[in-house]
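Memo subject: From amino acid sequence to discrete backbone structure tokens
Keywords: amino acid chain, backbone geometry, structure tokens, three-dimensional fold.
Body of memo: The sequence and its backbone structure tokens, given next.
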Amino acid sequence: MGKLLKILGVSEEVQKILPKEVLQGEELIDALQKVYSQAPESPKKSQLALAISESVRILLAKVQGYKIEEKKEDILEEEDKKLPEIDKETPPEEKPKKSMPTAPKPPPPPTPPKNAPESPKQTEEPMTCEEIKESIIGLTLLAKMGDDEAKDIIKQLKNKLKTQNCK
């Protein structure tokens, strides 16, 4: 089953009935994310993040028609309404909380030796407020998936929003 679809809350039942092109779309998004994680910082990297987030939005729109979990919930609620009411003195049972497994953190990048030459500073092209906001939106999904680099970039972009007096 697809890792991305699982992260996005698509159950294995639903994934089994998805058409082939949806699963291929998920594989494409996964490949784009790998390219993004290895790409050097640049405005093109921000554009790639936007493309990834838009692709995920489209994928979720296609999956939405196949989701049956919500339909099951509605049916269960209707069935519960038909059952006789339980004595109000009986305390309701508490459902056990599900714990989400956490992904292991990747090791920190190696630090260069003290006498190593510094890499040349990248010259950043100025970004408009709208481009900054779109980049933040695009990177949010990657950050939610545990990409620490995306989280750092979001912080930098939010600071840039403040310094450019964007609303």
